[in-house]
TrEMBL record:
CDD domains documented for this protein: lipocalin_Blc-like
Pfam family, one: Lipocalin_2
Annotated ranges, domain Lipocalin/cytosolic fatty-acid binding: 87-230
A GO BP annotation: response to stress
Organism: Corynebacterium cystitidis DSM 20524
Name listed for the protein in its UniProt record: Apolipoprotein D and lipocalin family protein
Entry-linked Gene3D superfamilies: 2.40.128.20
């Protein structure tokens, strides 16, 4: 009886140890991801905070944000151009994966699975639900609305988030959109935030190279964009400029020339 109790006690300790190791492993992976984002994103986050005391966060702090103001000379300081494509909000609505974004301190809690879901409320308004998996493994979500200001520019607001003016200038501009609405590149007019959105959790090698090219064409610095880990897709965080160059790709991009 004493021996059996002793074995049960040892098994209990072993199970607790395994459970603790599994939890510790999850924490280490999450911390590693956050550290990568901090290091890679520090080149872009600090100037954004210095320039924007009102913290004009595109999505209430759940998805991206930051700045590319330390970009090499030659990158545009003109307002981010809208896509020339006629945007149909009904087609644009639905579920999107964030596959890359310019990071900022408000998003350090998000380590993976950052997504956005858009629902058409009327011809000029869409509902917005942004979510992510936090460093503790929990889901964080925030809801808001986006009002269309022009063909490809909207004003996104989140109730309860301070320093927001519903009547302020647009802060969500679609600068690139695939013909089949499978991929979009968006940001605010000053490029303090930027996001690469896809209907799938990862992109092909050719698509990453195309995204890298389009970001440069739109006046962004691709190295300021950090890839977003997604279940079933990309599993690491690294600058898009490195992601695009590390992957083998054919000379012909898979994405169309739609803009």
């Amino acid at each position: 009886m004493l021996r059996w109790d002793h074995l049960r006690f040892r098994n209990s300790l072993y199970n607790k140890k395994v459970s603790t190791m599994d939890y510790s492993s999850r924490i280490r992976r999450a911390v590693a991801t956050v550290a990568t984002v901090i290091i890679a994103g520090s080149i872009s986050v600090v100037p954004a905070l210095a320039q924007s005391s009102s913290s004009e966060v595109l999505d209430g702090g759940r998805i991206g944000g930051g700045s590319s103001q330390l970009a090499p000379s030659g990158f545009s300081t003109d307002p981010l151009p809208e896509t020339d494509k006629e945007v149909d909000l009904n087609e644009y609505a639905g579920f999107w994966y964030q596959v890359a974004a310019i990071p900022q301190p408000y998003t350090l809690q998000c380590v993976s699975n950052t997504t956005a879901e858009y629902t058409v409320l009327d011809q000029d308004t869409i509902g917005v639900t942004n979510s992510c998996t936090t460093i503790l493994g929990n889901e964080s979500a925030i809801e808001g609305t986006a009002d269309a200001r022009s063909n490809a520019s909207l004003r996104v607001n989140f109730p309860g988030v301070p320093f927001q003016d519903p009547n302020g200038p647009d802060n969500y501009r679609i600068t690139y959109l695939e013909d089949d609405y499978s991929l979009a590149i968006v940001g605010d007019p000053d490029r303090l935030s930027g996001f690469v959105l896809s209907r799938t959790p990862d992109l092909s090698a050719e698509q990453w190279q195309k995204v890298d090219t389009v970001l440069e064409e739109r006046g962004f610095w691709p190295c300021a964009f950090i890839t977003t880990p997604q279940d079933g897709g990309n599993n690491g965080a690294q600058p898009v400029c490195l992601k695009a160059n590390d992957l083998p790709a054919s000379s012909t991009p898979a994405l169309s020339s739609a803009d």
